[in-house]
């Protein structure tokens, strides 16, 4: 935390400190961007306890805050198309940035997806970028594009409180390396996005900024820990957002909110220089930074642009491997592994249906599918190891909470573990072992899993694997629980994309569903989850990020065909 300037809070309760911060946030939204009372009165309140579909309600249009041109900018273009309009001069960066600032302000009033806003600075930078373009200067491939970024990334002059009251009042004195890279590429940063207290739950809820809500259904969670990004991107308040992922924190918001998300191999996208929620230097499972977007091509646009800058020059924790140009995909037939349902982590009916439908469409398109058994996939085994590694050190996060006197939020207090906690099959008893020997034993078990998957790739000759992104869609708040199908890929350090595919349906899946003893999953409520986005996950082996993105585009295109 060396890049943070500290100030001392005296004689203020944590509630007083939060009240002041919230008032600052409200004041940062221009008055003419505030939603009229008629809009708010039309909603079912409180929002987090009532299923409001904010997207279907078309509130940005009804509010009158955005012009027709601004609605067009935010609703009708992919990232590639926006960049093309900016490059041609048909759209100015001021126009695009203002449009997304307005829409982000509306999203904040409805979903509580933001932590820091700096609209005036962003529009000022956009004006400067337009002037430079008019002079023939082009900063880079993201010139003029607004990009949102998760709260943990540090931006000079802004706070990075990551959901801890004890971190409030501290301004960053330097940018995270990725922030400097995005600025060098011509991006416009305009907001930071909401996260959970501790950054280690799938519910983006904290005592400062409140709970990020899912714009598809405000009674369902937006995911975590990059939940603010998921909500903002789904509401089209950002064309491209940056999150981080140590157990699914990019992919869970993507699957909950129906967006695309990419978790690269760790340390390819620079992660350094962030505010951290735990002991400095302790990262037995290394987190990744990655994009959330509304179109699959934008995942590659972001990743390629960042990697082409040679991030290791600015961040010593980044791997110095440039973007690998694979050339056009000439394979007419992919060999795709398909993950089978794990006994410990059964799939909710909508997810089981989506996975089967996707497999059928891919097979009908001529791709070769290889079904992997639960014993081959070892999902439950990997989650035993991941949970025990994550649990080796938790005292620092508790200390940050206790420092202000604030309570833990419900999802943090719950401390939910794997479905077979207490009845492990893969991890031996750790009782009586000291820290060093626990860590060594878990590292050995982790390597066994990596070796198993190395054999699978080699012997089955797979191009990629199709898997659930989670057992479920978005679920009622504080009920997501342990994320088995994302955490196991962080343990393996594999790149993975989440893509939206279909929706939950009370007509197609009408029966309520509960897990059995010894299993872990949220309950399925067909009425409440009706219409929630379903998603799938595509992954490749470590450092095959370019192949992962390439195969994902092929699969996404195939699944979109009627």
UniProtKB/TrEMBL annotation:
Keyword field contains rRNA-binding: no
Keyword tags: Hydrolase
Cited Pfam families: Amidase
Domain named Amidase: residues: 95-549
GO terms for MF: amidase activity
Domain of life: Eukaryota
EC number(s) given by UniProt: 3.5.1.4
Chain positions recorded as substrate binding sites: 199, 225, 246-249
Catalysed reactions, as listed in the record: a monocarboxylic acid amide + H2O = a monocarboxylate + NH4(+)
PROSITE patterns recorded: AMIDASES (PS00571)
Active-site residues, record numbering mapped to chain: 150 (charge relay system), 225 (charge relay system), 249 (acyl-ester intermediate)
Family (UniProt): Belongs to the amidase family.
PANTHER family: AMIDASE (PTHR46072:SF3), AMIDASE-RELATED-RELATED (PTHR46072)
Name of this protein: amidase
Organism in which the protein naturally occurs: Knufia peltigerae
């Amino acid at each position: 935390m060396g890049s943070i300037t500290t100030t001392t809070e005296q004689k203020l309760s944590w509630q007083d400190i939060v009240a002041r911060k919230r008032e600052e946030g409200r004041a940062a939204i221009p008055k003419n961007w505030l939603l009229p009372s008629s809009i708010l009165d039309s909603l079912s309140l409180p929002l987090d306890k009532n299923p409001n579909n904010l997207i279907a309600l078309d509130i940005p249009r009804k509010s009158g805050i955005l012009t027709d041109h601004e609605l067009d900018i935010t609703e009708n273009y992919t990232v590639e198309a926006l960049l093309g309009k900016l490059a041609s001069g048909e759209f100015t960066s001021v126009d695009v940035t203002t449009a997304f600032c307005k829409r982000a302000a509306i999203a904040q009033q409805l979903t509580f997806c933001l932590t820091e806003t700096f609209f005036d600075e962003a529009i000022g930078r956009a004006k400067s970028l337009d002037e430079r373009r008019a002079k023939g200067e082009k900063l880079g491939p993201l010139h003029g594009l607004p990009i949102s970024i998760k709260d943990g990334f540090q931006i000079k002059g802004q706070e990075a409180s990551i959901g801890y009251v004890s971190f409030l009042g501290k301004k960053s004195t330097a940018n995270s390396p990725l922030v400097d890279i995005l600025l060098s590429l011509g991006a416009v940063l305009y907001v930071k996005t909401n996260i959970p207290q501790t950054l280690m739950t799938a519910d983006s809820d904290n005592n400062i900024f409140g709970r990020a809500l899912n714009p598809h259904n405000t009674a369902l969670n937006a995911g975590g820990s990059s939940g603010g990004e998921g909500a903002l991107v789904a509401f089209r308040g950002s064309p491209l957002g940056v999150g981080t992922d140590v157990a699914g924190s990019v992919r869970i918001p993507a699957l909950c909110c129906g967006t695309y998300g990419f978790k690269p191999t760790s340390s390819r996208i620079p992660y350094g220089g962030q505010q951290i929620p735990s002991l400095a230097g302790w990262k037995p499972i290394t987190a990744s930074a990655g994009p959330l977007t509304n179109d699959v091509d934008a995942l590659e646009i972001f990743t390629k642009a960042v990697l082409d800058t040679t991030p290791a020059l600015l961040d010593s924790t980044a791997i110095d491997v440039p973007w690998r140009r694979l050339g056009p995909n000439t394979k007419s037939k992919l060999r795709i592994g398909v993950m089978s349902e794990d006994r410990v982590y059964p799939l909710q009916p909508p997810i089981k249906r989506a996975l089967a439908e996707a497999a059928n469409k891919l097979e009908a398109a001529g791709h070769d599918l290889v079904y992997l058994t639960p014993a081959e996939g070892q999902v439950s085994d990997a989650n035993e190891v991941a949970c025990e590694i994550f649990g080796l050190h938790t005292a620092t996060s508790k200390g940050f909470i206790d420092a202000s006197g604030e309570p833990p939020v419900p999802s943090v207090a719950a401390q939910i573990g794997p479905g077979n906690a207490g009845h492990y099959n893969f991890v031996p008893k750790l009782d009586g072992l000291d820290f060093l020997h626990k860590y060594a034993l878990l590292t050995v078990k982790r390597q066994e899993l990596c070796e198993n998957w190395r054999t699978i790739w080699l012997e089955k000759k797979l191009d990629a694997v199709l898997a659930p992104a989670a057992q479920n869609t978005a679920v009622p708040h504080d009920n997501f629980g342990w994320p088995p199908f994302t955490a196991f890929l962080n343990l393996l350090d594999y790149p993975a994309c989440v893509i939206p595919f279909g929706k939950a349906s009370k007509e197609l899946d009408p029966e309520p569903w509960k897990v059995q003893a010894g299993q872990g999953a949220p309950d399925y409520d067909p009425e409440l989850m009706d219409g929630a986005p379903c998603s799938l996950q595509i992954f490749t082996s470590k450092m095959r990020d370019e192949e992962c993105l390439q195969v994902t585009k092929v699969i996404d295109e195939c699944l979109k065909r009627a």
